[in-house]
Design a protein that fits this description.
Strands 1-2-3 form a three-stranded mixed β-sheet. The chain has three helices and three strands, in the order ααββαβ. About 12% of the residues have low confidence. It is globular and about 70 Å long. The chain has a domain of 66 residues: Histidine-containing Protein, Chain: A (2-Layer Sandwich), CATH 3.30.1340.30. It is of the alpha+beta class.
Length: 106
């Protein structure tokens, strides 16, 4: 009986570990923005970038907040590619503004 109680307590404590860690904030060292995702707009922008058939545009990261603000980040080989990505994002339904943090790296 004593072993059964100890085993039950151990099982309960192991099962509670995920609950104890659930409200710890995620540590995202490379992101200074906190996004409440709008996945519909993000998907629309990513689809339009992919439709251009330029592999460099598919490497651009797209995030959208709850207000329709799109954040572009990543790398592109030319300023023209950066400008094209910005134009595509601006011309997407639901987008209110675009913040472009894409770096030009040939």
């Amino acid at each position: 009986m004593k072993h059964l109680v100890i085993a039950g307590l151990m099982a309960a404590s192991i099962a509670c570990v995920p609950l104890a860690m659930a409200d710890e904030p995620a540590n995202d060292a490379d992101s200074s923005h906190h996004f409440v995702k709008d996945s519909l707009i993000t998907t629309k922008v990513k689809t339009k970038l992919a439709e251009k058939h330029l592999t460099t545009l598919t490497r651009i990261k797209v995030d959208t907040d709850e207000n329709g603000v799109v954040w572009l980040s990543g790398r592109a080989p030319t300023q023209d590619a950066v400008d094209l990505a910005t134009m595509i994002a601006k011309n997407t339904d639901g987008v209110t503004s675009v913040h472009n943090d894409v770096a030009v790296q040939p």
